[in-house]
Specification:
Layout (H helix, E strand, L loop, with lengths): L17 E7 L6 E7 L1 E3 L2 E5 L10 H8 L2 E6 L2 E9 L2 H14 L2 H8 L6 E6 L1
Antiparallel strand pairs: 1-2, 1-5, 3-4, 4-7, 5-6, 6-7
Length: 124
């Protein structure tokens, strides 16, 4: 995905919407890039820190809590974004959108006791 700037995966183009999220490592200060599924609404992008239902939050979500400025790459275009964690009803409504595109998200939430983080990414 990195070489094609998020246009293709090793399996070719996939049916799920994918982006590359580049954050700044909270310990190293180095750029860290992660492929993620996303949902889009009204010019905003949303990503969920499911980490496949593991017991710990994904590193990229910890990075965003320390420095909320990041870059997303979609379809070959780099877009600087500002990340905001979602809370309450908005978070639950957004999570249901992830379940609608991939039922695995419901299973991920059932696998862990942690509260899955969801971020809104707004172009800056």
């Amino acid at each position: 995905m990195q070489r094609s700037k998020s246009r293709y995966t090793i399996l070719g183009p996939l049916g799920l919407p994918l982006l590359l999220l580049t954050t700044v490592g909270r310990k190293t200060g180095q750029p860290r890039t992660t492929p993620l599924t996303y949902v889009r609404e009204n010019g905003q992008l949303f990503v969920v820190g499911s980490n496949f239902g593991q017991d710990h939050h994904p590193a990229w979500s910890n990075n965003l809590l320390v420095n909320n400025l990041a870059t997303v790459t979609i379809g070959g275009v780099d877009v600087p974004v500002e990340a905001t964690p979602l809370l309450g009803a908005e978070k639950e409504r957004t999570f249901e959108r992830f379940v609608a595109i991939g039922e695995a998200y419901a299973r991920y939430r059932d696998r862990t006791d942690r509260d899955l983080r969801i971020f809104c990414l707004v172009p800056r």
